[in-house]
Amino acid sequence: MFGKTRIAAVAAAAATALVLSACGGDGGDNGDGDGEASGDPIPIGIIADLTGATGDVGAPYNEGMLAYIDYVNGNGGLEGRQIEADSNDYAYEVPRAEELYNQYVNDGVVAIQGWGTGDSEALSGSVANDELPFMSASYAEPLTNPEEAPFNFVVAPTYSDQMRVALNWINEDSGGDAEVAVFHHDSPFGQAPVADGEAWVTEKGYSLGYTAYPMPGGQANYVGLLSQAQSQGAKYIVIQNVAPPAAQVAKDIQAQGLDMTIVCLNWCANELFINIAGADVAEGHMLVQPIAPITTDKPGHEAIREYIEAEGIDEGDVGVSWVAGWATMDVMAQGIEHALQNSDELTGPAIRDSLQTMGAIDVGGLIGGDVVQFSEESHRGSTTTGIYRAEGGQMVEVEGSVTP
Amino acid sequence: MAATATGIHHRSYTSELKLRATKAEYFRLALLAVLLLVVPFVMGNYWLSIVNTIFIAVIGAVGLNILVGYTGQISLGQGGFLAVGAYSSAILSDRIGLPTPLAILIAVVLTAVVGTFFGLPGLRLKGLYLAIATLASQQIIEFIIRRDHGGWLTEGKGFINVDRFEFLGFKIGARAVFEQQWYWILMPLAVLAVIGARNIFRTGLGRSFMAVRDQDIAAEAIGVNITRAKLTAFAVSSAFVGLAGALTAHYSEVVTWEKFTLQVSILYLAMIIVGGLGSVAGAVYGAIFMTILPVLIRNVANAVEGSVPFLSDQLPAIQNAVFGAIIIGFLIFEPRGLDRIWQRMKDYLRFWPFRY
């Protein structure tokens, strides 16, 4: 009997020692929102894709965000407080994003900047429960509804709005009678605007034909898909996918000698699309992109130019994804600044309330050539987008600011 | 291990059937029990969240090991079966309004049924061919949840937000206590899963699984109904996996298709290979190891960021490379995994100074 008690006692001691030594090491574990005195840094967590499936646009987006933070901190911060951003790569894998999120929550961040549709959706429930404002580069319709996702803010027009703008343009360009093929990524991200686009054609009474085709992944080319579109009689191909497959479609159209115009939405509407396809192949294709490229010289670009000149960054490296990161962080920073001015304590709910009530947020026309505005009923920040045409290897503005 | 270790003598059949024979084993059990009871009080929320993830992984890995390690039916369908558990439990509890534990229970049964269905090819196929057949099940389920044709799974949103776990007036609290409360739900379930799996292999059913694995023709000759054994193995294994999937849904409070890809299937296979095929303890070790490894690699990379910036720049690539290297290393140096290494360490101490 005596032996057993002693064993148990030793066991307890050993276990405690083991656990304590396991959790030592990384002290300051329980930093849940303490230290709100003015002058303290403002902690923000960034979930970035640098090396994953969308790293080619995720990395510049992250650079843009960090550049904005650097710029603001260099100019005295927000109300005298520096932004302290922790940015980590999640390689576009949702479980890693969740793990990073847990780490940030534990570190006591007041806001989260995410990236893709996958992580934005996977974390929408958690950020609502933890009351942390969340912005990302996913412009999916469900995230704009505060009843569904009360702490998600969508800064740019949704994919559905971009699709509506694309269809309006096609309707006008074709004279109101054309077949439209929609090539989309085979996922919720890809499908997001498909049904809304079809409803728009009916609602507006356009006599456009409308057929959607999922783009299979890992294809060497899209000739098969294009021949389907050809038998449909499609003259316009709206693509909701990232740039590399869209550029492949452009090459295939060229190689097959087809008379089709691509209308790229958001994630293929960038310099990357033109560079991968090549200037000749991309020539004449249309790009629906809410973020103003630096070549369009909006007022908001002045700060970017000032920053990149000081840092010695080549303007050619500042693509729309870079600007998107900068502009998104700008919206979040203005919300934080407003919260600092109007509430005693900087918390997630305070930032959310600020974003909802502060009215128009001026980002110098970087997003849709207009302001961003949220309300308690809607977290749809903007409905305006730009339309560009690929000309001579550049994104040339066709219309700077259109709404559906 | 079926054979008893050297130096332990049984005088009755009951004592031979006992799970633990030596004092050292009881001592370790007590140590483990104390450890499990102390953990939630000393660990911070971040580490507790990792521990909770481990518990879910343990349930899933134990389930997969029943099928792959004990019955010898290779399965690449783990991600799909997790998805069945997660989606059905989320839909049953949040949309249909069943009490969450009941929804989880139905999800477990449903996953077992789906698993059995996709196990049917196992009656005719073995080895690599079966792996390809289960790969098809992964692809089919992934296709369904990814497309969500007609929006019957996610109502057209592409994901399901799951309400905070609630039962009989008890509701999981805010972030400060969230992980701790989940710990007290997940820990007992993981322990039950482990005890349950251990006990299956003391019964005739579990032994028939192993007979099928070791030599199916001989098993049939001595009267094992192979059809039944294989399908039961698929059902039992999928039930565990369904439980893990359902818990994932309620713990992480959101269900998206991206959590249940082929990569998840392979991660779970890696867990049981690294831990030890055909061993319940091995599945546990593997789940712990594979969950903690990426976290450790990241912490190390962050710690040395100043001197070796390359490490943190290329972190996910390095994590993948280390994963691959570890699996290859285990296959070469200790194919029976962490469990066997642990056994050898124990034997070494027990027989010291003799070799055996």
Describe this structure in words.
With 404 residues, chain A is of the alpha/beta class. Chain A has two domains: 42-157 and 297-384, Rossmann fold (3-Layer(aba) Sandwich); 159-289, Response regulator (Rossmann fold, 3-Layer(aba) Sandwich). Chain A is 45% helix and 17% strand. Chain A is built from 14 helices and twelve strands. Chain A has helices spanning 2-23, 55-74, 94-107, 117-130, 159-174, 188-191, 194-204, 223-232, 243-256, 271-277, 279-282, 301-311, 320-342, 348-357; strands at residues 42-48, 83-89, 111-113, 134-135, 152-153, 179-185, 209-215, 234-240, 261-265, 286-289, 385-391, 394-402. In chain A, the strands form two sheets. Chain A has a seven-stranded mixed beta sheet. In chain A, helix 2 packs across helix 13 (320-342) and helix 3 (94-107) runs parallel beside helix 4. Chain A is globular and about 65 Å long. The termini of chain A are far apart. Chain B has 356 residues and is mostly helical. Chain B has a domain at 22-261. Helices cover 72% and strands 3% of the residues of chain B. In chain B, the strands form two sheets. Chain B has a two-stranded antiparallel sheet with strand order 1-4. In chain B, a hairpin with a 2-residue loop joins strand 2 and strand 3 (170-171). The longest helix of chain B is centred in the C-terminal third of the chain and has 27 residues, at 226-252. Chain B is globular and about 65 Å long. Chain B starts with 12 loop residues before the first helix and ends in a 5-residue tail after the last helix. The interface between A and B is large, with 56 and 48 residues.
